[in-house]
Amino acid sequence: MSGALTTEARQQAWMRLAAVKEQFAARGWFPATSGNLSLKVQEDPLVFLVTASGKDKTESGPDDFLLVDGDGQPVEATKNRPSAETRVHAALYRAFPEVGAVFHVHTVANNVISELFFAQGRVSIGPQELIKGLGIWDEDAVIEVPIVENVADIARLAEAVARVANPRVPGVLIRNHGIYAWGESPLAAKRHLEAFEFLFQYRLALLQCRAALVGV
Ligand SMILES: CSC[C@@H](O)[C@@H](O)C(=O)COP(=O)(O)O
Ligand SMILES: [Zn+2]
């Protein structure tokens, strides 16, 4: 199937994903090999480039990514395994055909927010200027980021993420695990992820300041 993909298209996708991986690694967004990234290279049938599983993502090499199909199966000979969470990426590409890239990171901020607000099933954020980074330009917009349980069965996790995913708010939190954010292009997915992480950090800082001020 990947024979239909030109070497040039594969190389271009590789370079774009490698650049994102390097930037996120520099921010400390891949602690202890966590996180995974993907970039769609073919719509129908679905083929995407995804990070190999279990690698130290602060390092770069020829085995960093592999091409997989819509079932998460490698479409070329490889000794590497695709990300253990490849099915979540596939589910998001299937749910939203306009999505071109899906990024997943574990940060302290997204984990704490996911735990604090899990009981509500979502965290409401806003009004906040950086919501515009998600492509939402309404004045005083308030967004709701869904939060799902962190189940070990990845097929169930993928199904849960796709079920609550809202195309208008391009991210889903997984409880005490991390966030999946997406966009039409790698640049858009990166912008969305940066906006979410800013909003989570802001929310945590605000909660901490308010708690510290009680009784002052
Ligand atoms: C090393 S803890 C993180 C993993 O369990 C997983 O959640 C993760 O994000 C990375 O898995 P991977 O298979 O490398 O893509
Ligand atoms: Zn993860």
UniProtKB/TrEMBL annotation:
Hydrolase as UniProt keyword: no
Cofactor: Zn(2+)
Pathway assigned to this chain's UniProt record: Amino-acid biosynthesis; L-methionine biosynthesis via salvage pathway; L-methionine from S-methyl-5-thio-alpha-D-ribose 1-phosphate: step 2/6
Occurrences of domain Class II aldolase/adducin N-terminal (ranges): 15-204
SUPFAM superfamilies, sorted: AraD/HMP-PK domain-like (SSF53639)
GO biological process: L-methionine salvage from methylthioadenosine
Residues involved in Zn(2+) binding: H104, H106
Reaction catalysis annotation: 5-(methylsulfanyl)-D-ribulose 1-phosphate = 5-methylsulfanyl-2,3-dioxopentyl phosphate + H2O
Record key words, sorted: Amino-acid biosynthesis, Lyase, Metal-binding, Methionine biosynthesis, Zinc
GO molecular function terms attached to this record: methylthioribulose 1-phosphate dehydratase activity; zinc ion binding
The protein's Enzyme Commission number: 4.2.1.109
Record-linked InterPro entries: Aldolase_II/adducin_N, Aldolase_II/adducin_N_sf, MethylthioRu-1-P_deHdtase_MtnB
Any one Gene Ontology cellular component term annotated for this protein: cytoplasm
Family affiliation: Belongs to the aldolase class II family. MtnB subfamily.
Subunit annotation: Homotetramer.
Described purpose of this protein according to its UniProt entry: Catalyzes the dehydration of methylthioribulose-1-phosphate (MTRu-1-P) into 2,3-diketo-5-methylthiopentyl-1-phosphate (DK-MTP-1-P).
Protein name: Methylthioribulose-1-phosphate dehydratase
